TrEMBL record:
Source lineage: Bacteria, Pseudomonadati, Pseudomonadota, Gammaproteobacteria, Pseudomonadales
Domain HTH lysR-type residues, every copy: 6-63
Gene Ontology biological process terms in this record: DNA-templated transcription
Any Pfam family the entry gives: LysR_substrate
Record key words, sorted: DNA-binding, Transcription, Transcription regulation
GO molecular function terms attached to this record: DNA-binding transcription factor activity; sequence-specific DNA binding
Protein name, as recorded: LysR family transcriptional regulator
InterPro entries recorded: LysR-type_TF_proteobact-type, LysR_HTH_N, LysR_subst-bd, WH-like_DNA-bd_sf, WH_DNA-bd_sf
């Protein structure tokens, strides 16, 4: 075995292929092409003189040597990310980069203008915003801050409960202009509804809508909003989204069972970073002010 030049990049390739079972999956995780992953894996196996993965139509399965190296890579990754967080935690400057992950609905309906105000107030801080409904790992530094609606924030993160997101039923204003608001719940029950599908992962709303006639489903809250705007049915939407839409009208009082806490979360190692703390304070205050005015 040629033991020279075992690099962290090599270990990242092994770990990514072991976790995803494919070159394309590893490429997405490492943000490189699958051809690059293939070339780096071949080069590593040649230098080590050992096969790390068995190739088949089902994907890439680690050999005993591959499993051993992937385990080592996992431990090294934890140490590297831990060191990054601890070093970042010593940063007292109001400059640098903050990587924020949030949902498409929150960004479009609530956060976009608040982020713009923050950038104008702190021009030396760069924002990288990951708009996704997927969970990003703050421990692995995929993001520094998560802004998420959740009833159960992870125990491994710290932060604050900013507000409760109210939700209500909305319909196209042109269809409901003559109706008194709020509309009686029994009248709404027989209407056609736009609802979430299973891919949205919103079990609470699915359960609440179990007795409704739902013939149009979406995997996106913004999609539900657009469908309601077109008159395809009535939909439950966050009030910060529906109340701002002139094409829609609120048909119900806020639904108590669907109120969801909004959290700003970060990793414990980052909470004393000046730019992180400043961002969380500013956005928390802005969210509270904006939602209180709705």
């Amino acid at each position: 075995m040629n033991e020279q030049a075992m690099r962290w990049d090599d270990l990242q390739v092994v770990l990514a292929v072991a976790h995803t079972g494919s070159l394309s999956g590893a490429g997405r995780r490492l943000r490189v092409s699958h051809a690059t992953v293939f070339r780096r894996l071949q080069d590593l196996e040649k230098r080590l003189g050992v096969r790390l993965f068995e190739r088949s139509r089902g994907g890439y399965a680690p050999t005993l040597a591959g499993e051993d190296l992937a385990t080592v890579a996992g431990r090294v990754q934890q140490e590297v990310h831990g060191a990054e967080r601890r070093i970042a935690g010593q940063d007292l400057r109001l400059s640098g980069t903050i990587r924020v992950t949030t949902t498409d609905t929150l960004f479009a309906g609530l956060l976009a203008p608040l982020f713009n105000d923050f950038r104008e107030q702190y021009p030396h801080i760069s924002l990288e915003v990951v708009i996704s409904n997927q969970r990003y790992s703050l421990s692995r530094r995929e993001a520094d801050i998560a802004i998420r609606p959740t009833n159960h924030p992870p125990d491994t993160l710290v932060g604050r409960r900013v507000t409760d997101i109210a939700q209500a039923v909305y319909g196209q204003r042109a269809q409901w202009n003559a109706a008194a608001s709020p509309v009686a719940p029994e009248s709404l029950r027989s209407e056609h509804w736009v609802g979430p599908d299973a891919h949205m992962g919103y079990a609470t709303l699915e359960h609440w809508m179990a007795d409704k006639t739902t013939s149009y489903r979406m995997d996106s809250m913004l999609g539900m909003q657009m469908a309601a705007r077109e008159g395809s049915g009535i939909a439950v939407l966050p009030c910060y989204l529906g109340d701002q839409d002139d094409v829609l009208v609120r048909l119900s009082d806020p639904i108590e069972a669907l109120a969801t806490p909004l959290w700003l979360l970060t990793h414990p190692d980052l909470r004393q970073v000046t730019r992180i703390r400043t961002f969380m304070d500013a956005i928390a205050d802005s969210v509270r002010a904006r939602t209180a005015a709705m």
